[in-house]
Amino acid sequence: MKVTESKLSGVLTIEPNVFGDERGYFMESWQQLRYQEAGIKENFVQSNVSKSQHGVLRGLHFQNPNAQGKLVYVLEGEVFDVAVDIRRGSPTFGQYEAVILSEKNHKQFYVPEGFAHGFCVLSESATFCYMCTNYYDASVEASLLWNDQAIGIEWPLSSPVLSEKDSKALKLKEFDVNRLPVFAS
Q1: Which of 8, 29, 74, 87 fits 183 for a cystine, CB–CB 3.0-4.6 Å?
Q2: Most distant CA atoms of the chain, gap in Å
């Protein structure tokens, strides 16, 4: 397995070993010891799957308190996946990392606690999987505006399909500073 560290502390792109032949392929999507060696020490407590159509953008979501780290990957289709550092005091506060995840490249993206996360669907549809380090808690979930110019994410879509919640999301500078997670060096 190949692990690539991001410019954002703790964010990783993982390329699992994939064993394929004319019948298809096999890969480990998670193996605790191997992923701990790669730097993911947290335990996962919840696994989710979403299916979305072309042009759908989900995010940028985060929880605070009860933050969630996420290991994400695509089973079917292709997405543009993004992590934004929203940790107060972080040297990379407001910066983002993006990666293409697809059924063909088998890449995984680890987004640690303290980051906002989102993705948009590039293919006709996509089946998106994510393992979480904490339980979903709607009472502390928030949405960061997907096209906040101060962050400057270069999304491959200009007019995505958004949920009502995501269309009303706040810019990073509009959040009460106490609502954002704190950077722990």
Answers
A1: 87
A2: 54
pLDDT category of residue 184 using cuts at 50, 70 and 90 = confident
Q: How far apart are CA 2 and CA 13, in angstroms?
A: 8
**Within 13 A of 117's CA, how many CA atoms are on the CB side?**
24
**Catalytic residue at 130?**
yes
Q: Which of 35, 73, 96, 130 is catalytic?
A: 130
Cα–Cα distance measured from residue 106 to residue 57, given in angstroms and rounded to the nearest whole number: 20
Instruction: Quick: pLDDT tens for 47-68.
Output: 999 999 999 999 999 999 999 9
Position 185 pLDDT exceeds 80: no
- Cα 172–chain centre separation: 17
Residue 61 annotated to the active site:
yes
Give the span between the Cα atoms of 162 and 51, in whole angstroms. Answer: 14
